[in-house]
UniProtKB/TrEMBL annotation:
Gene3D superfamilies: MetI-like (1.10.3720.10). This is Amino acid ABC transporter permease. Residues 73-268 form the ABC transmembrane type-1 domain. Keywords: Amino-acid transport, Cell membrane, Membrane, Transmembrane, Transmembrane helix, Transport. PROSITE patterns: ABC_TM1. Belongs to the binding-protein-dependent transport system permease family. HisMQ subfamily. Residues 12-22 have a biased composition (Basic residues). Residues 1-22 are annotated as: Disordered. It is found in: Cell membrane. It is a multi-pass membrane protein. The chain crosses the membrane at residues 29-46, 77-97, 118-139, 145-162, 183-204, 250-268. Residues 1-10 have a biased composition (Polar residues).
Protein backbone atom coordinates (compact mmCIF):
# COMPACT_ATOMS: atom_id res chain seq x y z
CA UNK A 1 0.00 0.00 0.00
CA UNK A 2 2.82 2.36 0.85
CA UNK A 3 4.42 1.70 -2.49
CA UNK A 4 1.18 2.55 -4.24
CA UNK A 5 0.94 5.86 -2.37
CA UNK A 6 4.43 6.75 -3.38
CA UNK A 7 3.71 6.00 -7.00
CA UNK A 8 0.48 8.05 -6.96
CA UNK A 9 2.17 11.17 -5.63
CA UNK A 10 2.31 13.86 -8.30
CA UNK A 11 5.75 14.87 -9.53
CA UNK A 12 7.04 18.14 -8.15
CA UNK A 13 7.44 20.74 -10.90
CA UNK A 14 11.04 21.71 -11.60
CA UNK A 15 12.04 25.18 -10.56
CA UNK A 16 12.76 27.29 -13.56
CA UNK A 17 15.85 29.49 -13.32
CA UNK A 18 18.65 31.02 -15.34
CA UNK A 19 21.52 28.87 -16.51
CA UNK A 20 25.11 29.84 -15.75
CA UNK A 21 25.60 31.13 -19.26
CA UNK A 22 22.46 33.26 -19.00
CA UNK A 23 23.58 34.62 -15.65
CA UNK A 24 26.97 35.56 -17.08
CA UNK A 25 25.32 37.22 -20.07
CA UNK A 26 22.96 39.12 -17.80
CA UNK A 27 25.82 40.25 -15.55
CA UNK A 28 27.88 41.35 -18.55
CA UNK A 29 24.91 43.25 -19.97
CA UNK A 30 24.35 45.06 -16.66
CA UNK A 31 28.04 46.06 -16.57
CA UNK A 32 27.84 47.43 -20.11
CA UNK A 33 24.72 49.41 -19.25
CA UNK A 34 26.37 50.87 -16.13
CA UNK A 35 29.50 51.76 -18.09
CA UNK A 36 27.57 53.47 -20.88
CA UNK A 37 25.45 55.32 -18.34
CA UNK A 38 28.58 56.53 -16.52
CA UNK A 39 30.15 57.75 -19.80
CA UNK A 40 26.97 59.59 -20.76
CA UNK A 41 26.69 61.15 -17.30
CA UNK A 42 30.31 62.31 -17.50
CA UNK A 43 29.83 63.71 -21.00
CA UNK A 44 26.70 65.62 -19.96
CA UNK A 45 28.13 66.93 -16.67
CA UNK A 46 31.52 68.09 -18.04
CA UNK A 47 31.98 71.70 -19.12
CA UNK A 48 33.57 71.03 -22.50
CA UNK A 49 33.89 74.71 -23.31
CA UNK A 50 36.13 75.40 -20.33
CA UNK A 51 38.13 72.23 -20.97
CA UNK A 52 38.72 73.23 -24.58
CA UNK A 53 39.70 76.75 -23.57
CA UNK A 54 42.26 75.44 -21.06
CA UNK A 55 43.63 72.33 -22.78
CA UNK A 56 42.90 72.53 -26.51
CA UNK A 57 43.97 75.88 -27.90
CA UNK A 58 45.04 75.21 -31.48
CA UNK A 59 47.13 78.37 -31.87
CA UNK A 60 49.16 77.53 -28.76
CA UNK A 61 49.66 73.95 -29.91
CA UNK A 62 50.94 75.16 -33.28
CA UNK A 63 53.60 77.26 -31.55
CA UNK A 64 55.10 74.10 -30.05
CA UNK A 65 55.97 72.56 -33.41
CA UNK A 66 58.44 71.48 -34.57
CA UNK A 67 60.46 72.00 -31.35
CA UNK A 68 58.28 69.63 -29.33
CA UNK A 69 59.37 66.84 -31.70
CA UNK A 70 62.86 67.85 -32.82
CA UNK A 71 63.99 69.02 -29.38
CA UNK A 72 61.85 67.78 -26.48
CA UNK A 73 60.87 64.36 -27.81
CA UNK A 74 64.36 63.77 -29.19
CA UNK A 75 65.95 64.55 -25.82
CA UNK A 76 63.46 62.33 -24.00
CA UNK A 77 64.27 59.42 -26.31
CA UNK A 78 68.02 59.99 -25.89
CA UNK A 79 67.70 60.15 -22.10
CA UNK A 80 65.64 56.96 -22.10
CA UNK A 81 67.91 54.94 -24.36
CA UNK A 82 71.10 56.00 -22.57
CA UNK A 83 69.52 55.24 -19.18
CA UNK A 84 68.32 51.87 -20.48
CA UNK A 85 71.83 50.92 -21.63
CA UNK A 86 73.36 51.92 -18.28
CA UNK A 87 70.62 50.09 -16.40
CA UNK A 88 70.98 46.96 -18.52
CA UNK A 89 74.75 46.73 -18.01
CA UNK A 90 74.54 47.48 -14.30
CA UNK A 91 71.52 45.22 -13.90
CA UNK A 92 73.40 42.32 -15.50
CA UNK A 93 76.28 42.75 -13.05
CA UNK A 94 73.93 42.92 -10.07
CA UNK A 95 71.96 39.89 -11.27
CA UNK A 96 75.16 37.83 -11.52
CA UNK A 97 76.14 39.04 -8.05
CA UNK A 98 72.76 37.88 -6.74
CA UNK A 99 73.41 34.43 -8.21
CA UNK A 100 77.01 34.30 -6.99
CA UNK A 101 78.15 31.69 -4.49
CA UNK A 102 80.09 34.45 -2.69
CA UNK A 103 78.00 35.70 0.21
CA UNK A 104 79.13 39.37 0.27
CA UNK A 105 78.29 39.72 -3.44
CA UNK A 106 74.75 38.48 -2.82
CA UNK A 107 74.33 40.77 0.18
CA UNK A 108 75.58 43.87 -1.65
CA UNK A 109 73.34 43.13 -4.63
CA UNK A 110 70.34 42.58 -2.37
CA UNK A 111 70.95 45.84 -0.50
CA UNK A 112 71.29 47.77 -3.76
CA UNK A 113 68.05 46.33 -5.15
CA UNK A 114 66.06 47.06 -2.00
CA UNK A 115 67.34 50.65 -1.75
CA UNK A 116 67.00 51.74 -5.38
CA UNK A 117 63.76 49.88 -5.90
CA UNK A 118 62.25 51.57 -2.86
CA UNK A 119 63.41 55.16 -3.45
CA UNK A 120 61.43 57.48 -5.77
CA UNK A 121 63.20 58.34 -9.02
CA UNK A 122 63.03 62.02 -8.06
CA UNK A 123 65.32 61.46 -5.07
CA UNK A 124 67.83 59.64 -7.25
CA UNK A 125 67.95 62.59 -9.66
CA UNK A 126 68.44 65.03 -6.79
CA UNK A 127 71.18 62.82 -5.36
CA UNK A 128 73.03 62.77 -8.70
CA UNK A 129 72.59 66.51 -9.25
CA UNK A 130 73.34 67.74 -5.73
CA UNK A 131 74.92 65.12 -3.49
CA UNK A 132 77.56 63.83 -5.92
CA UNK A 133 79.08 67.30 -6.65
CA UNK A 134 79.13 68.02 -2.90
CA UNK A 135 80.75 64.69 -2.05
CA UNK A 136 83.32 64.87 -4.85
CA UNK A 137 84.18 68.55 -5.50
CA UNK A 138 85.45 69.25 -8.98
CA UNK A 139 84.22 65.91 -10.29
CA UNK A 140 82.15 66.07 -13.46
CA UNK A 141 80.02 63.22 -14.73
CA UNK A 142 80.94 62.59 -18.39
CA UNK A 143 78.36 63.79 -20.89
CA UNK A 144 77.08 66.74 -18.87
CA UNK A 145 73.33 66.69 -18.36
CA UNK A 146 72.90 63.71 -20.68
CA UNK A 147 75.40 61.74 -18.59
CA UNK A 148 73.68 62.70 -15.33
CA UNK A 149 70.25 61.70 -16.61
CA UNK A 150 71.61 58.43 -18.03
CA UNK A 151 73.26 57.61 -14.70
CA UNK A 152 70.18 58.49 -12.64
CA UNK A 153 67.83 56.52 -14.88
CA UNK A 154 70.31 53.66 -15.05
CA UNK A 155 70.55 53.41 -11.26
CA UNK A 156 66.78 53.23 -10.99
CA UNK A 157 66.32 50.78 -13.87
CA UNK A 158 69.16 48.49 -12.79
CA UNK A 159 67.35 47.50 -9.59
CA UNK A 160 64.36 46.23 -11.58
CA UNK A 161 66.34 44.81 -14.48
CA UNK A 162 68.59 42.85 -12.12
CA UNK A 163 65.64 40.92 -10.74
CA UNK A 164 64.23 40.36 -14.23
CA UNK A 165 67.57 39.09 -15.54
CA UNK A 166 68.08 36.88 -12.49
CA UNK A 167 64.65 35.32 -12.98
CA UNK A 168 65.42 34.74 -16.67
CA UNK A 169 68.72 33.02 -15.90
CA UNK A 170 67.08 30.79 -13.31
CA UNK A 171 64.32 29.93 -15.82
CA UNK A 172 66.85 28.32 -18.17
CA UNK A 173 66.90 24.56 -17.49
CA UNK A 174 69.87 23.47 -15.39
CA UNK A 175 70.62 20.80 -17.93
CA UNK A 176 71.87 23.51 -20.30
CA UNK A 177 74.73 24.37 -17.96
CA UNK A 178 75.51 20.69 -17.36
CA UNK A 179 75.57 20.02 -21.11
CA UNK A 180 77.88 22.97 -21.69
CA UNK A 181 80.25 21.82 -18.94
CA UNK A 182 80.30 18.32 -20.38
CA UNK A 183 81.45 19.83 -23.71
CA UNK A 184 84.40 21.49 -21.98
CA UNK A 185 82.96 24.98 -21.42
CA UNK A 186 84.13 26.83 -18.32
CA UNK A 187 81.35 28.13 -16.01
CA UNK A 188 81.92 31.72 -17.16
CA UNK A 189 81.97 30.83 -20.85
CA UNK A 190 78.89 28.63 -20.49
CA UNK A 191 77.05 31.46 -18.76
CA UNK A 192 77.99 34.00 -21.45
CA UNK A 193 77.58 31.76 -24.51
CA UNK A 194 74.73 29.44 -23.51
CA UNK A 195 72.71 30.60 -20.50
CA UNK A 196 72.49 34.38 -20.91
CA UNK A 197 71.35 34.33 -24.60
CA UNK A 198 68.54 31.92 -23.68
CA UNK A 199 67.63 34.03 -20.65
CA UNK A 200 67.33 37.16 -22.77
CA UNK A 201 64.89 35.46 -25.11
CA UNK A 202 62.74 34.75 -22.08
CA UNK A 203 62.95 38.21 -20.52
CA UNK A 204 62.75 40.29 -23.69
CA UNK A 205 59.07 41.27 -23.14
CA UNK A 206 59.55 42.49 -19.54
CA UNK A 207 62.71 44.34 -20.54
CA UNK A 208 60.80 46.13 -23.30
CA UNK A 209 58.12 46.97 -20.76
CA UNK A 210 60.85 48.41 -18.54
CA UNK A 211 61.86 50.64 -21.47
CA UNK A 212 58.29 52.00 -21.57
CA UNK A 213 58.38 52.77 -17.84
CA UNK A 214 61.80 54.36 -18.16
CA UNK A 215 60.55 56.63 -20.92
CA UNK A 216 58.03 58.13 -18.49
CA UNK A 217 60.53 58.24 -15.60
CA UNK A 218 62.79 60.63 -17.53
CA UNK A 219 60.63 63.60 -16.49
CA UNK A 220 62.58 64.35 -13.22
CA UNK A 221 65.49 65.42 -15.43
CA UNK A 222 64.23 68.98 -15.02
CA UNK A 223 65.62 68.97 -11.45
CA UNK A 224 69.15 68.74 -12.85
CA UNK A 225 68.98 72.29 -14.16
CA UNK A 226 68.73 71.49 -17.86
CA UNK A 227 69.27 74.21 -20.43
CA UNK A 228 66.73 75.20 -23.08
CA UNK A 229 68.37 72.84 -25.56
CA UNK A 230 68.38 69.94 -23.08
CA UNK A 231 64.71 70.06 -22.06
CA UNK A 232 62.66 66.87 -22.22
CA UNK A 233 58.91 66.71 -22.85
CA UNK A 234 57.69 67.47 -19.32
CA UNK A 235 60.00 70.46 -18.88
CA UNK A 236 59.21 71.72 -22.38
CA UNK A 237 55.45 71.54 -21.80
CA UNK A 238 55.68 73.03 -18.33
CA UNK A 239 57.72 76.03 -19.51
CA UNK A 240 55.32 76.84 -22.34
CA UNK A 241 52.33 76.37 -20.05
CA UNK A 242 53.80 78.99 -17.71
CA UNK A 243 54.50 81.38 -20.57
CA UNK A 244 51.03 81.08 -22.11
CA UNK A 245 49.07 80.63 -18.85
CA UNK A 246 47.36 77.70 -20.56
CA UNK A 247 47.58 73.90 -20.14
CA UNK A 248 47.54 73.06 -23.84
CA UNK A 249 51.35 72.52 -23.95
CA UNK A 250 51.05 69.94 -21.17
CA UNK A 251 48.38 68.05 -23.12
CA UNK A 252 50.50 68.11 -26.29
CA UNK A 253 53.51 66.85 -24.32
CA UNK A 254 51.38 64.02 -22.94
CA UNK A 255 50.27 63.06 -26.44
CA UNK A 256 53.93 62.94 -27.50
CA UNK A 257 54.59 60.46 -24.69
CA UNK A 258 51.77 58.31 -26.06
CA UNK A 259 53.31 58.42 -29.54
CA UNK A 260 56.14 56.31 -28.12
CA UNK A 261 54.56 54.32 -25.28
CA UNK A 262 51.54 52.98 -27.22
CA UNK A 263 53.61 51.41 -30.07
CA UNK A 264 56.08 50.00 -27.53
CA UNK A 265 53.19 48.58 -25.52
CA UNK A 266 51.88 46.89 -28.66
CA UNK A 267 55.33 45.41 -29.31
CA UNK A 268 55.43 44.05 -25.75
CA UNK A 269 52.05 42.36 -26.14
CA UNK A 270 53.08 40.81 -29.44
CA UNK A 271 56.31 39.45 -27.95
CA UNK A 272 54.44 38.03 -24.95
CA UNK A 273 51.94 36.34 -27.27
CA UNK A 274 54.75 34.80 -29.34
CA UNK A 275 56.49 33.62 -26.17
CA UNK A 276 53.31 31.89 -25.00
CA UNK A 277 52.87 30.24 -28.41
CA UNK A 278 56.44 28.98 -28.28
CA UNK A 279 55.81 27.43 -24.85
CA UNK A 280 52.68 25.64 -26.15
Amino acid sequence: MADTDVQLQPKQPRKKGLTRRQKRSLSRGIQYVVFVAAVIAFAVAADWGRLQNQFAQGDIAEQMFPDVITLALKNTVLYTLSGFVVGLVLGMVIALMRLSSVGPYRWLAGIYIEIFRGLPALLIFIFIGVAVPLAFPGTEIPGGTYGKVALALGLVAAAYMAETIRAGIQAVPKGQMEAARSLGFSPARAMISIIIPQAFRIILPPLTNELVLLFKDSSPALFLGVTLEERELSKFGRDLASQTANSTPILVAGLCYLLVTIPLGFVVRRMEAKAQEAVK
